[in-house]
C-alpha cells in the first residue's frame, strides 16, 4: 500500500529509499512521482478553469541527505540563538521532521505556494486564499488530501499545515473525505495488518 504509506518519527524511511519514476516539474523544478505530477497538473488546470490563479509546488520529493541538511541547519540556527542542544532539537522538530521522517521522501506530497517566488508559509497566507478554499472542496477529486488538518493533530501528531498536500489516489482520497478520516485513522480502520 505504497500510496497509503505513513512516514513519521515512529516510522522513518531508510536513508537509501528513493521512489520509482520520479519526474521533474518544469516550472518550480521540484521532483514528484510521475502519477502525482500528472494529478497536480490536472488539478491546477481545473483550478484555472474556475478563474482562480495557478498554484505552484514549492517542495516535492526530498532526499534523505537534503532533509538531514535542512534539519541540521535549523538546529544550528537555534543553537546560535542561545538554546542548548536538546532544546534546539525540540524547537527544530516543531517546524521540520528529522531526516527520514518526512513523508516528502515518498515523492507523493507537495507544499503548495500561491506565487512563483513564495518562500514563506504562514498559515494565514493559505487559509485566506481562494485556491485553498477550492482545494478543500475539490482536491480529493484529483487524489490529494490535506495531510495535516487542524482537527486531526491528535492522530497525525503534527501541527496544522494548510500548504501540505499528499497524494493517495482518487479512490482513497474521496473515501477519506466522505468518512472524515485523516490518513492515520483511515489506515488503522481499513488496512492495518
Ligand atoms: Zn510539506
From TrEMBL:
GO terms for molecular function: peptidase activity. GO terms for biological process: proteolysis. Residues 31-169 form the D-alanyl-D-alanine carboxypeptidase-like core domain. Transmembrane segments: none annotated. This is M15 family metallopeptidase. It comes from Zhenhengia yiwuensis.
